[in-house]
């Protein structure tokens, strides 16, 4: 009985030790080549940190045009390299000596912040050429797209 208890204890102790010697190592089992070796992060500071958030950004107006079906100027775009919720996307349409605007909440996507569903009803716009810009604003970032002209039909 004693020898089986001793064998059990040796096996119970040896398995974790052997596993820790070979886990993550190459085929040779050399603990020195383990990816877990190296310097230990200091307790005085963070082990890793994100890059600082940009204070200005690229705002891209990816689509703007007159939509006959909705009788409106519609637009969409994105903000890069910022990825965040909580910002505001504003479509600004200027022409005929007037400016109209519409805003929607920005939505964080995988690699950008999305601005979609922006629309200015045709009833608020006179026929002619209107200049469209997309603006983005949050607590940390702001920016404006390059302008794009849209023709509103009569």
In brief:
This is Lipoprotein. With 154 residues, the chain is mostly beta strands.
Would you give the CATH topology of the largest domain? Immunoglobulin-like
- Written as H for each helix and E for each strand, in order along the chain, the element string is HEEEEEEEEE
How far is the N terminus from the C terminus?
A: 99 Å
**In total, how many beta strands?**
9
The Rg value, from CA coordinates, equals 30 Å
CATH architecture type of the largest domain: Sandwich
CATH class of the largest domain: Mainly Beta
Low-pLDDT stretches are 5-26
Shape category? elongated
Task: For this entry, give a set of tags.
2 domains, 14% helix, elongated, 4-stranded antiparallel β-sheet, Immunoglobulin-like, single chain, mainly beta, 5-stranded antiparallel β-sheet, 154 residues
